[in-house]
Design a protein that fits this description.
Shape: extended
Radius of gyration: 51 Å
Strand content: 25-35%
Distance between the termini: 28 Å
Number of strands: 123
Largest sheet: 7 strands, mixed
Strand order of the largest sheet: 63-62-66-67-59-57-68
Number of helices: 13
Helix content: under 10%
Amino acid sequence: MCPGRRNPRSAVVMKVALLSWELSLAIFLISSRAQMCAGQLENAYFLPEFALSPQGSILEDTIGEELVTYRYDDQASRMTRSDEDGDGGWDAWGGWSECSRTCGGGASYSLRRCLNGESCDGRNIRYQTCSNTDCPAESGDFRAQQCSAHNDLKYQGHTYEWVPVTDDPHAPCALRCQAQGTALVVELAPKVLDGTRCTASSLDMCLSGVCQEVGCDRQLWSDAKEDGCGVCGGDGSTCRLVSGQASLHITADEPLKTAVEVPLGSRGVGITAKGAGLVIIESHSLSGHRELHSFSSPGWYTIENTAVDFQRDADKQTIMAHGPLMVDFIVKVKSTAPSDTLVQFMFYQPIRYQWRETGFFPCSVTCGGGYQLNSAECTDIRHNRTVPEQRCRSHPENRKPKAKLRECNMDACPESDGFKEVMPYDHFQPLPRWEHSPWTVCSVSCGGGTQERGVACVEEDVHGQATQVEEWKCMYSPRLPVQQHCNIFDCPQWTALDWSQCTVTCGRGLRYRVVLCIDHRGQHAGGCSAGLKPPVKEDCLVPVACYKPQEQLPVEAKLPWVKEAQDLEEPRSAWEEPMFIPGPWQPCSTTCGPGLQQRAVKCRILLAFSQAEVDLPHEECQDERPVSERACHLRLCSGVLGPRRPLLPLYEWQYVGFTSCSSSCATGMQEAIVRCVDRGQGEPADDSFCDASTRPPEMTRACNPGPCPPGWEPKPWTPCTSTCGAGIRSRVVPCNRLVSLTPAVTVTVADEECVEPKPPVLQSCSQRDCPPSWHVEEWQECSHTCGGGTRSRKVHCKQLLRDGGVRKLADTSCAGTKAAVQESCARTDCPAQLAGGEWSPCSVSCGIGVQTREPICRRRTAAEQHVTLGPAACSGLHAPPLVRTCRVSACVEQQGEQRPKLSQKRDPSILGLHRIYIQTQQEKRVHFTVGGRAYLLPRTSVVIRCPVLHFQKALIRWEKDGRALPSSLRVAVTKSGSLKIHSLEAGDIGVYRCVAGPVAETFVLKLIGNRNRLLEMGMEADRPGGHLEEKWNQTNMMWQVGNRKNKFYLDDGQSQERAFLQVLSRYLSSLTAPGRPVQDKILQGAHSLEPKQFEELVRSLGRLVGKGDVTEGPRAELGEDGTTTKASDKNSTEGAGEGSTGRREKPVIIRQKQQLQVTFEKTVNISVGGSVFLTNATQTVFLSCVARGVPKAAVFWIKDGGPVQPSERVSWDSAGVLHISKPGVGDEGEYSCMVTNELGSDTATSRLLFAEPPTIRVTSRDMSDLEGAALRAIVGGQLSARHGANVTLECPVTGVPQPSVTWSKDGGDLPPNAVPLRRGSLFLHNVSMENVGSYFCWASSPLGRSVASSLLLVSGAAQGRAERPHRSQKRVLMASHVGTEVTARHGDILRIGCPILPNHTQAIRWTFQNRTLLVTHGPQHRRLAGGRLLEVNTLLARSSGTYACHVPAGHQRASAWARVRLEELTWSPGEWTACSATCGSAGTRSWKAHCVGPGGEEASPSACHHLPRPEKRPQPCNVQDCPPSWGATLWSGCSNSCGGGTRRRQVSCQQLSSSGTVTTLADSACSGTPRPLHVEGCHGHSCPGWFAGPWGQCSGRCLGPASAIQSRPVICKHHNGSTLPESHCDHRNRLASTRNCTSEQCNVQWRVGPWRACSAACGSGIQSRRVECIHRRTDRTLVHQRCGWRRRPITWRHCVITSCGGECVDSTHYCAAVKELSLCVINLYQQRCCRSCQGKETPPKQ
């Protein structure tokens, strides 16, 4: 009986069938009969058979891979016979069919036919996989698409939404689907489409209804498996196995501890925890997002797109994740009580830096045969980016893939003869290689520079001639660096030793020190800048009065330190600046008594490009020339008597310092230096002059006791891994710190503490080619598993090259015998197998018949022979097909064909469902129907269906918030018109609209955010359900806060959110009556409500929370009527009492207007709504929150979005006053007071901030730019700018509250061209000499004041004439014996000459006011020309007085002098400036100060800049009412972003009064002046628009007879021609991109042939016919896909001729069930159960 004809007994019979396992065959018979009925009844059609197997080739008894032979009569399909099948009777294999799928892994088949029409061993069909690329996420599941194809077909009178039933172990390749929302499961087709996955967790696919094995390489019957790293066929070298265990002791102080960190990309994660602790996973994403995940019950969880299986036993928790992990997992253990937990873990951690091959580079030629290479790059798989190759080389298991070389563009060039021999490239000439030029000279000699070289890719021809080629040819190997760092050591620096003792024991004297030029090795060398050398002597004062005449005061005593300092300075080398280089001292001119020593002094410079020193004229060196002569005295001459003095030794031993430390760290040693010194002269002498017996003992001291900085200590290299070819050697390079030298103590520290680059741990070695040798590959698989077979392998003669390459050579190049390439295998007997014998002749003379054969039991022996065995040896084995169809010749028969009737066109409609969905539990995916609204949890995937009638689903489009919804990786529209959103985010909130032609339906989507609040995205306040959502948020907040008072409260935000959702879930479950339809519930974690039910839900929860009935959190139980099972009588009474007062009002916080202020009080009292700055003096803060409302409102405090946690310092009383004692920085933040009762809530906010004093971030860096037009600097240093430049001084300040910034110049007002800018900067426009001076930045706040200054100097030309400040003018005068007087201005530079003869060589001493000028180099005084000139800077020193030069007695006059007098300048007030305004109250004027001399003559302002400028006191002026005038605001933006539009502004008649107020007047008051426009046109750029390209060919898919689809590109373009995203153009005006067209290729139809004769002469058989796709006009046969737009007619059917024989017996023992199920009306069952169907009671035939 067909499914459409229902039998009343069927229900009873089906129950009996399900209770008895013996009736399993009956169920199979039912499905078989369903197929037969499909051909008889049009309304019983389920799923067309689109399997790849050819029509008519699969019989009812065909099982497994053994397919019957299929024979064609169509001679046009014959192909060339292949050699391999030449003697097997088979024709050549045909071409491969189209793939069954376009992505995700499908299958295609190829056919062949038997030529002799008789016995052909083997199969006539073969398969291969295809389209192995992954499908996009929006395409959906392939099995689900097959189920959804039946959604529009009725089943038992109803239509259902079908979803697949996956992972069925009994029928993995049957299409079993479940009606969504019901328990109905139906097998809609016996076989799924070819290429469908057998299970969701494997790659195995179904072919012709049989599950076939597929390896990870996507190939059929492949045994390729993934390794632990997830690499198909890999060897596990891309990851490491990490395993171990952690024993955690959890205490009350540390309730949460980390067990193990599992990085991103790990696979095979297994974690087992034994103990009382709760396992928690903290996920860390690459973007920095962190989240805690806990497990409430066993099952599957999704953590950041990673599936995690959690299982829990009595004392064990297990977490399993196949991976790869999408984020970092930090596994932690949490416990509320002290406990011990043992965590065992194992996972495969990926190696972060791995080699990845690049694509092939372009071909070397365009024709005639060339080559192309690829390369490999080091990739950081964590961030998916390319990194330096050293990262990959640090892992020994990482082996860089060798570059691959392949031929390309082998077609002959047009101008050639078409023949060109292409030789293997690496046999006849080497690969292209990198060549480089020598490094250039380093850019600097020290301090770190760079040097460069040229790198080119060269190629040698067969003659050895190298030419430069494109660089991509060498990219198979790393490109040589073209730049490197050089001379990275520090430049030599001056190092000053300790000062000596003062040269006198009373009064003023000198002290000396040694100044050395020390290089980076710590050695004394040259190269230091002479201008930066610290002084070697300075004045010293001993606070003891001297009782000596004035002329006997000590002058420049010479101690041994002077000699030592001079000796240690030699030798000196030149630098890149001209400098004097003194030579060595010559021996003393006398051997006894006073003498002279001389040396050569030259002006030299170091040439950087040649590193050579050259001599220059002396005037090129600007510094002071060292002396070339000095006095010397070795010993007293014999016979010369000096003045009578005590008999004391002339020479003595003295300690003169210590040697340099033997070590810079780890406690070195210093030895005292002992020298023999002349007591009279203080000069060092030879040790022979001192008495050796009085030599002081050696003295040492410890130095530099601190540990040495960490440094790399490379260990010895290991032996090379190879004696030839490319080998590698390694070494260990630890980071060590030397703690002590004696004894030697070294500590190994972490590598991160060593700042220097780590020396390489790997190095190539064995740089020579290996001799040719045989390379033997692994054996291939045996051709047979038993019964004798062969296996083969490859043996090549190869040579390993020194660069790591391999050269393949001829076999004659290798010595020795070549290994065997083939051998026998599987030399064992095969087990017995059941095969088929010879086929019988065809059962019919025309049409399609059947052939039979007998089974044969045989075995294949090890000698490769077949031995026939007895039937008992094959008992229990599966027999091969014993029946197959056969064709002889076509039988002539005509049969008509009915055409389906065209359905009548109707208007489209959308079947929306107006319901409200609430999600209370995290689910992976939830399905909805358009028309309602949903409140969902984040990270949930959503499918919104849009069921339509009379409309093509492919044309459905979606909008969001009134705009077209663009597709993305997360949001997509399926082919059936459903909207899929993956992992909901806040940006997905909105109103979605499904548009199907003229009709549309909406769906509102919202998220339940943190603390269960409904997230909003700018929707209108008057939206539907808005007041209910506000009530939701208020109820949830009251529940969260009230629940904290419960003894079961857990200090865990997620736990509280789950608890609230659990309460809500139980209440929602109570709303679902027992008789409610099943589809009202979407999933376990989502509930569906009517709008009235949702309103009732919010009101009920609001009443419960307001009464306090749900304060017990997870323990509160809700009854079926929505109320709590136990209610507090006290709360009920209070609620009634409050309601009886009559007046009820919503709570309102009483706010007091307060200004933000800084307080220094110990106790601070503020009301909520105000803010305050606290200081260190604050000890207590009271923050009050006063509210009114009936009933009385509950008060809750929130800090920075989270509840305020009570502690010993923080608390609040019943009146709502928050008390904070001893506030600190951690108490800073935003405090919100929330008051609520059952009528509503109110919130007010205050901020508590800690005040900080003002601070200016100054700089000590001087900046000079004498050429640029603008100079920008931070206050603090000295600035030099050219005349006319713009200078910006920045004053960065910090402090709380924000300090105010003011500027002044030289203590007075700013010049007119100085403008203070926002954020505290000062802008000086077009600076001149008047701007020279010091500028002060003042930062002020209630906590104090800070100041910083900068000195601005101006130089350059103005209007083509040189203009310099007076202080830079140089004046030269000569001192005289009678005195010279001169008057100078402040800032002049004076050069005073000393009148001495040119040949004078003695030292010259200068004095000022009878005091010796001791400083030889400095900004105040400088000696020039060997002391003959004294330069005085009057700007930087006290200059008024007498300067004198003195020479030793015995020459000319002893001294000459000059008196300098500075001209006295003052500031004088000048004229008033013009008033800054003509009316109003802001007009001011001030007088301008002038710099004048004693006689009143005016001088340059820069001459008085050192004097304090008098304060300018602005005076008000023109204080009067202004006449009425028009005032206008700023223009608004253009009304249109593109094209033409308008912009507006407000224009009014205003008057500014003398008090500064602005009064708006009537427009008539300004009638005397024209009114400005308030509206004007504006023009933006041209609006983007749609542009369509030309229509393409009419070659799309066929829609009907001679009708196809024609398409054209439609793009959104800017007015300038650039392409824009389609969202920038109006989709309502989009041009059509497709249209119907007439195509001759689609003028096709199905042509059916006559039915052939039945395959059985009697009983049940099959008959077939030919069905072809032909062209209507040409009658030519085409491929079947051309007619795919119409259903293909059936090609075979069952046929029954007559009963075979007169014997009526039962051939199966299931006939009792057949008769009971009334299946005797089916011919097949009637024949097999003939006896039972006729009512005879005879036993079945065995």
